[in-house]
Structure formats: structure tokens, C-alpha cells
Amino acid sequence: MAVIDMPAPAERAARAAGSPAGARILIGIAVVLTLAFIVVPVVVIFAQAFARGLAPYLASVTERDTLRAVGLTVLVALLAVPVNVAFGLVAAWAITKFEFRGKKFLLTAIELPFSISPIVAGVAYILVYGSNGLLGPFLEANDLRIMFALPGIVLVTIFVTSPFVVRELVPLMQVQGSDQEEVAATLGASGLQIFWRVTLPNIRWALFYGVVLCTARAIGEFGAVSVVSGHVRGETNTLPLQVELLYHDYNAAGAFAAASTLTLIALATLAIRAVIERRLPRTGRVGH
Amino acid sequence: MSTIALDGAQIVRPRRVLPGFGLTMGATLLYLAVIVLLPVTALVLKSAEIGWDGFWRIVTGPRTLAALKLTFGAAFLATLFNAAYGLLMAWVLTRYRFRGREILDALIDLPFALPTAVAGLALTALYANNGWYGSVLEPAGFPVVYTMVGVAIAMAFTSVPFVVRTVQPVLESIQPEIEEASRTLGAYPGTIFRRVIFPIILPSYLTGCALAFARSLGEFGAVIFIAGNLPFKTEIAALLIYIRLEEFDYPAASAIAAILLAAAFVTLLTTNLLQLWQLRYSRKV
Fold this sequence. Notes:
The complex is a heterodimer of chains A (288) and B (285).
Chain A: H1 12-15, H2 20-49, H3 54-61, H4 64-97, H5 103-115, H6 118-129, H7 136-141, H8 150-161, H9 163-176, H10 179-186, H11 191-220, H12 223-229, H13 239-248, H14 252-279
Chain B: H1 21-59, H2 62-95, H3 101-107, H4 110-113, H5 116-127, H6 134-137, H7 148-158, H8 160-173, H9 176-184, H10 189-218, H11 221-227, H12 237-246, H13 250-284
Helix pairs in contact in B: 1-13, 2-7, 2-8, 2-10, 5-7, 5-11, 7-10, 7-11, 8-10, 9-10, 10-13, 12-13
């Protein structure tokens, strides 16, 4: 792994970075640390999941409550992700196609959910929709149950995943500019025509990647969902919650089996990223 | 994660050529109001309802204080680790070309891609006294599981990408001429790094550290598995919020949550200021 190729002429910076021996040492430390700190924990999940072979693994994965948790998780992602795709497209259009005051502030507000602890998000939602919350009396009067049920899980998932699509689209659309859209507009295209025929083809990979990230997080969210789910077995437990439940039931094999499924999704996300990065124009990077 | 960068050079157009400003802007603001602003406001209102005295009593209660100390202390340790590891990774990934570099680069994002509960489970299995690492560390006198170090390791794992991903693009954008000039003037590599490169990456480096720290403060899923969650000892603030909530003690839950929320706002403010500093610097260069 640590064999150094001769730096290409375009990468003169690499030459200024020190002696080959020093480089080898630094690369060595980086590789060892990454293996020990990041890779081994992932290996452990599979090692534990398959510790007793394939048959017990399959039995754990197809256990009734685990399958129900998978179903709920997929349902939550299917409801939350499209909302944030729509939001991402609309917000990115407003931000990149027009000039207005307070744009920087708006971007900060959009990214706010990334800075807020999932637990804090869960509490905040309970204080709105819970029985003691701002809208609690209204919801109870109309017999609407949001917290500790599916709507609550979907709502907090929407909250924690809301910045993903926007943050993939905005930088790209900013670099691409609006020239093509403006030409289309002067030629008489309507807003929707411009979006479908001009903008969307240009941003499709960034959009796709945003959707992938958003979906991965929607499937894996734990803290916020844990606060609002109510933990009803086979009913309001998503797959990450099921992992915790199995673990506390001293069913380590089942917990690791369920965890390995989630790990596969994470690894697939990374693979998709690697493929898409080659298709996206490298903003700000010259040559490669 | 870094805030979305704004392109500095934008042409001010006299008129809006493209349609949809009112619609998209209105929808964006409405969405933000309902999804983000409403819950955050509810939390602030609930904490304000307690009053300053009540707030102070909850926050300075021994159990809360212990949880806050542990959370901030472990987050600090985790950030120290990531400050060193992240800088090393950013440097190695941008400055050297070696086989497997792309894979190493991709692995950095693994902690973000992995659900936090899964990370917590894996780290616990690894560092427990019968785990691959724990079976060596614990007899050697370094217990990790159910200690502050364990909490810090879980926090460090989930916030790995922040420092790497904020420093990496800046390191990549440094013109080779700058370093070549210092070299021809006789500077040693160490001096070049300290006097030339480090000042350029400093704002983004601090941004990465601030983001990693903020994420560590709020981390829940990865920590609760490895922490053991003993009150006064290894109970983090996020978990205490959760416990208060289950006890229907909403004032206490809101008060502690308000502290974490305030920490998040301070981080946002800090990173925005750091970004301004960086822009000023890049204009000078």
C-alpha cells in the first residue's frame, strides 16, 4: 500500500512535502490508524454476525420483529426522503438562481439540523406535538396522534435529513450558473420546462447522491427516532432501534445480524459515492 | 459538516430573468418554519418557562453537572484525537500518491455512513473485556468500556470526517509555487509547514475541530452502548435528557437540551466567523 509513485508534473506540491522516507512513515501511520480505528469496527460486526455460521444468521435476520422493523424503516425512508428531495430542489433553485439579502443566513438555517443533537431534536418535536406540547391540546381535541407513532418518526427523520439534498445541489448549481436556463427562458420556455429539460439533466448525479445520503441517514437514524418512537415491539421500532433492543435482550447474535444489514447499506452508500464522484465535475479542482 | 460555500464573485443582475422566485422562496421559508423553526422555538419557549432560577437549579444539580462535565470532557478528548488524526489524514491524502489512496480516502466517510447505533455496538464488542482490543487493553490496566475514555472513543469515531473533509480542499488548493518559493529560499519542510502551510489551513482546521466537537457533544447512539450509563460516572448529557423525558420531567429535559442547543448555536457562529476569516485570508493570498 505504501509504495510511492513518482509525482506527476501537475502534482509538484507533493514533492515539496518532504523526503520519501518521511512520506512512507506518515502514510504508514495513516494506514495503520485508519485500519485500527475505522476498518476493524466494521469487520467486527460481520465477524460477530456470522460467528455461528450462516443458518443462525439467516434465522436472526428473518425473525418476525426484525422483519417488521425493516418494513417500518423502509416505510419511513419512503415517506421522508421524497419530502426532502422536493425541499432540496426548491431551496436550491431559490438560492442559486436569484440574488437576495440574507442568503448566507438562509443557508445557515438550512444546515441547522446538522448541528443539533438528534436527542435535542426529538425533545423539541415532543414539545410541539406531544400531549404537553404547543399543539398538544389541538391534536388531542381532534384525536390526532403524532408522537410515539409513525407520523412522529417520519417528522423527526425529515428534520435530521433535511439538509442532505440541498447541500449537494447548491455548490454544483452555483458553479454551473444560470446561463443555460436564461437562454431557455429567452427562447420562451416555461419555468417547469426549464427545470425538467435544462436544470435537471445537469444536476442529476448530484441529486442522486443527495438522495443516497438522505436515504442512508433516514434508515440509520437512531437518537431522534428513539425519543419519539415509544418503542413498541414490532410496531414502532425501526431497524436501528431493533438493534438496541436485541442487544439489551442479550440476543447479541440477532443484534449483530441486524447491524450487519445496516452496515451493508452504509458500504453501498460509500461505493455509490466513489462511482458518482467520477461523473461529477470536480468543482474547484483542476485535473486529476 | 462544513457549511455550503458561497461563491464570492456573483454578478448582480438588474432584473430576474428566471421564473419561480416567489414560489420557491415561499416554499423554502414555509418548510424551514414548520420543520426547523417551530420545534426549536418550542424548546426555547419551554426552557424560558422554567425561569432563570429553576433553570439554574436543574443545570447545577449534581447528576446534571456530572453528565455535562463528562460530555464536554470526553468531547474535548475526542476532538484532540481528531485534530491530530484528521490533520495527518488530510495531509497524507492530498500530498502523497500511493496505491490504495482512493480507498483510504473513501474509508474516511465510513463513520458518517454507518448508523450510530451500529457504530456503538461494534465499538463495544471491540473494546469489551472479551473483545479483540479490550482483551489486550484491560489486563494491561486500560479499561475502555464503561469509562470516560470509552465515551471519548465513540465520540471520536463518529466525528472523524469533519477535520479531514474541511482541511483537505484547502490543502489541495494551495499553489505549489508558494511552497517552492520557500524551498528555494532555503526553508526546511518543517519550517514550510509551520510558517507557510499551517497559517493558510488554520481557519478551516479550527472549523473542522469546532464541528467535530459539536457533533461529539450531541452524540447519542454510538456512546450509550460503550458508556455503561452509570449516573454520576458515565452518563452523557444526551442520555440524561432522554431519561428525564421518560420520567415525564419535561422542564429538566428541556433545560439540558437547551444547553446542548446553545452549544450548537455557538459552534455555528464560530464556524461562520472562521469562514469569514478564511475568505479574508484567501483574498490576501
